Amino acid sequence: QVQLVESGGGLVQAGDSLRLSCDASARTFSALAGGWFRQVPGNEREFVAAVRWDGATAYADSVKGRFAVSRDNSKSTLYLEMNNLQPDDTAVYYCNTNPPLRLWGPGTQVAVSS
To answer: For position 3, what pLDDT does the model report?
Structure first.
């Protein structure tokens, strides 16, 4: 059973930074892209960023220039560096393959105060 465990969230002020981590079972991502998604209660889960096996990245327009996604293939781990956080970034953040093919993990809460 593939497991995804996100960590690194917290309560910060606007302009601060956070680094999220996603630990996955071995070979979860392999040749698949790894992705970060976020969800606000009452809304659909939305795509944030993805990184392909070769390091190519893609971002939602709302986070371009502020967030950076990366992966460590040897550890089956994804990272999301979030800079200049804004209140609109407040959400529960999840990792998965991109497109999402695995069961969702518990997510990690990010709360940004103005």
So the answer is: 87
